[in-house]
Design a protein that fits this description.
Layout: E1 11-15, H1 35-40, E2 88-93, E3 101-105, E4 109-112, E5 115-119, E6 123-128, E7 134-145, E8 152-159, E9 166-173, E10 178-185, E11 190-199, E12 204-213, E13 216-222, E14 226-231, E15 240-246, E16 249-260
Antiparallel strand pairs: 1-3, 2-16, 3-6, 4-5, 5-16, 6-15, 7-12, 7-16, 8-9, 8-15, 9-10, 10-11, 12-13, 13-14
The structure holds calcium ion (3 copies).
One calcium ion binds next to loops.
Length: 261
């Protein structure tokens, strides 16, 4: 059985999100690719250091100085979940200023530069209100340390409302080995649908991606090595995302949500 979501009270942080490009251009600068969220924040930050500011970067979390976008949908080839389909950058959280991603939990949270540090003393939950139909959700940063026991987890939950069962992506370790999952929550139980054994949860730079489509979900953990879980499931989409951090000392550097809402 996998983890039960527990939203503890305690620390409460909020971070900005870049809103959908298609909604419009509050700055009136004619740059549709920047969107109202970008217009609302100062367009001076370059998360991936590729020389292109987040608000106009076609892949704000991956260095791609050439900005290649073969299907011209505003999402660069290197992060486009569906070359040939129309996608958007639905949200991008760079952890630079207060805003729409709200974190609640019992870790000690610290904003250090452009990172959010969680000290791994407990469980913290982040909620981002964004429609997630056919999407890639990617969270990236660094895992600094992992305790030797306890319920250790990093998860991406597309909140289903009353539509259960639903599927989610995570790294999980309670007893025995750690695994990367596509897993199912039925309303009562948590069940891995597909898993890849990690041995232990790796430390160092990481990204965890949930690729969600109507008949498929894939979880990809990229560290020094890559682990994938892939399942044929009926993914139904939702209106918000929840991120769960449990007992991991981590620095979170970005969250990107890319796809068709
Ligand atoms: Ca950039
Ligand atoms: Ca980039
Ligand atoms: Ca594209």
């Amino acid at each position: 059985m996998l983890a039960i979501l527990v939203v503890a009270t305690g620390c409460r942080f909020g971070f900005e999100s870049r809103a959908p490009a298609s909604v419009d251009d509050a700055a009136g600068d004619g740059a549709q690719a920047d969107g109202p969220g970008a217009d609302a924040i100062s367009c001076t930050h370059d998360e991936d250091g590729d020389g292109v500011l987040d608000c106009v970067d076609v892949c704000p979390h991956i260095a791609d100085a050439t900005q290649q976008d073969s299907d011209s949908d505003g999402v660069g080839d290197i992060c486009d979940p569906d070359l040939g389909g129309a996608n958007q950058i639905l949200a991008f959280v760079a952890f630079t200023e207060a805003g729409s991603l709200v974190l609640t939990g019992d870790d000690t949270l610290q904003e250090t530069g452009e990172k959010l540090h969680l000290d791994g003393t407990g469980r913290t939950v982040g909620v981002l209100a964004v429609p997630v139909g056919n999407v890639d959700v990617v969270i990236g940063g660094r895992i600094n340390s992992v305790p030797s026991s306890g319920e250790r987890q990093l998860a991406i939950f597309p909140d289903p409302g009353s539509n259960q069962p639903f599927f989610y992506s995570d790294i999980y370790q309670l007893t025995g080995s750690a695994s990367v999952h596509v897993a199912q929550y039925t309303g009562a139980t948590y069940t891995p649908i597909d898993s890849t054994n990690l041995g232990s949860i790796p430390t160092g730079a990481f990204s965890l991606k949930m690729h969600a489509r109507a008949t498929q979900m894939t979880t990809t953990l990229a560290t020094a090595q890559t682990a994938v879980a892939n399942a044929t499931v009926a993914y139904t989409g939702s209106s918000s995302l929840t991120f769960v951090f449990s007992l991991l000392d981590v620095d979170i550097e970005y969250i990107a949500v890319i796809g068709a809402p």
